[in-house]
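Below: protein 1.
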Amino acid sequence: MKKIKMVVFDMDGTVFPMQSSTCSAETIKALEACKEAGVITSPCSGRSIFMIPEEIKKAINTKYVIYCNGAYIANPVTEEIADSNPVDKNKIIELFRKAQMDGVYHKLSTFHQFIDDNTSGKTFGTIPAIFVDDIYETLENLNEPLYKAEYFFYEDLSLREKIMDIIKDEKEFFFSSALPVNIEINNPKATKGQAIKRLAELYGFSLDEVMAIGDGDNDMTMLEAAGFFVAMGNGSDILKRKADAVTDTVDNEGFAKAIYKYVLNK
């Protein structure tokens, strides 16, 4: 394995547990050790720019972060966009209409906020979000780039399979899931793997100098792109089977252990 010059990493289930935004002191320590060693470290997440915790922003060593599954790459401080692949809002309207059913909600991610039609579950806390009654009218009037759209089905997980049966042959989108309760919809050019390639180009690194770490099926394109891929111990079975290495779980400092073993050689 070549010397690792860049580490890109998923966030939910990798640097902190699902449904959390708090990572351990050991994770921060590992990121800071990478910074001291001159290793570039960048999140590669389904999260938007406004969802990256301040402690992560301070600890990482990068000019750019990959957001919304690769839909855009931006400077986390200046918010300058280095690469962008939004999804067509009119095509999303058509897609949403194809799989309308009770119990299905929708979420939109723009650069600065969420838009959500699950008006009964306003649980985002400090995350910028607006709640709407009519997602279609909202999309029609949207006057900013749409980077990611999502189906959500909180009450009935069987809806995922029903929706996928309806939309699976749509070639103008890339579908993935970070959670059992959602389906994420991106531009086909917006994948974590393609974003890693672009980020490596921005830094002048070859892909075999890049290590990626993740836990979910939506991290598969990272596995395919990076020169070395580490799956979290709590990761999906298929990801662990295909990974170059498997580390410990997120609850047992798997991220930090992978950094020390494969990047810093400690």
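Below: protein 2.
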Amino acid sequence: MNSYSFVDGEFEVRSEIKHSVFIATVKGDLDGDGAEEFVRAVRKKYPDATHNCYAYISDEFGNATRFSDDGEPSGTAGQPILDVLKKQGLVKTAIVVTRYFGGIKLGAGGLVSAYSGAAADAVRAAVVSKKQACKLLDVSASYSHYALIDKLTRSSLCKVDSVEYDDNVRAKIFVPACDVERFTDSICELTAGRATVSVDDGVYYEKL
């Protein structure tokens, strides 16, 4: 996987349908433990709610999913919320839709529409970001050569993780995995081969 999209932060949207109040809260950049903690936090925030239904996708591949109807008829809340996440292509993101029952039953179709609509409204209100599959490069160069490398980094879709200043400059730079060869060739050209570059074997997902 070269990249994935997620909700960047936490957002909340309220709506009312036939006197029932729906509060949709969405949060991203979560793993499984983080998603479960988020669900607990929303339940704690609204302890007197009739239902706190939720869904989340907790890995970058879209495989680790979980949802709950929390007492609503089976298939009318959690699955529709999860469907919104899938339709929007969001992963590592959780949505909790809180309901305060207003006295009028919505029926199965009405519940599906209400929960999916609330979840979609929350996503529309949110900031969606993307993380890119990256390699971590360890670059060592003289001060004058690093100035050229820094300029290259700033003009590319890369992110400096850390910089150490000693006799030389040593920087760790996240570079899109698909662009590592071009980036290292550019460093070699800019520094006439005097900079040293090593590439970490791991794959890291970073917001660039």
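The mean pLDDT is 97.
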